[in-house]
């Protein structure tokens, strides 16, 4: 049994030595490539031929397989970063909406918005959650004057039954509810 193992170990050792040589050559080629690129960039910088700005309607950062991973685009006053998974599905968006309000949104594999974090028109932060059918189910935000508010909504969204807890600086906590018949209830 020991005699049989020796040739197997010797063969495995030869394979590892071959892999190490290949890795050294690959590493050396990569290092040479990086040095050449750095020298090229240094020459461009020293010669003054680097542009002051780059203009493009779309900038794409690609995965190794050529599919876009990150896109930077600017529509009419609406810049955005789009993040795609390796299969090409849109999974996250960071954009400026409306009057330049920043919003970060997360999407599921079917491209449904599931969560968003952003600023209101007053500049207050908020986060919202949607269900599988793109219905608002919960949000937490700072209201117009900066007071915290938590909203929970039925499958009908803001039009159906709901419970909203609001903390007023003047009146203290307020719980506002709407039942399935549309009847509003408020405490206090």
What does this protein look like?
The protein has 188 residues and is of the alpha+beta class. The longest helix has 45 residues. It starts with a helix and ends with a strand. A hairpin with a 5-residue loop joins strand 1 and strand 2. Strands 1-2-3-4-5-6-7-8-9-10-11-12 form a twelve-stranded antiparallel sheet, with no helix packed on it. It contains one helix and twelve strands, in the order αββββββββββββ.
Describe the SSE topology.
Layout: H1 2-46, E1 58-62, E2 68-75, E3 78-84, E4 90-97, E5 101-107, E6 113-119, E7 125-130, E8 136-142, E9 148-154, E10 157-168, E11 172-178, E12 184-187
Antiparallel strand pairs: 1-2, 2-3, 3-4, 4-5, 5-6, 6-7, 7-8, 8-9, 9-10, 10-11, 11-12
Could you say how many structural domains there are in total?
3
Radius of gyration: 29 Å
- Report, as a whole number of angstroms, the end-to-end distance: 86 Å
The count of helical stretches stands at 1
* Range of helix content: 10-25%
Poorly predicted runs:
none
Structural class: alpha+beta
Strand order of the largest sheet: 1-2-3-4-5-6-7-8-9-10-11-12
SSE pattern: HEEEEEEEEEEEE
How much is the average pLDDT?
82
Strand percentage: over 45%
Count of strand segments: 12
Give a short account of the largest sheet. 12 strands, antiparallel
What general outline do the C-alpha atoms trace? elongated
Provide a brief overview of the structure:
With 188 residues, this protein is of the alpha+beta class.
Characteristics:
188 residues, alpha+beta, 3 domains, twelve-stranded antiparallel β-sheet, 1 helix, 12 strands
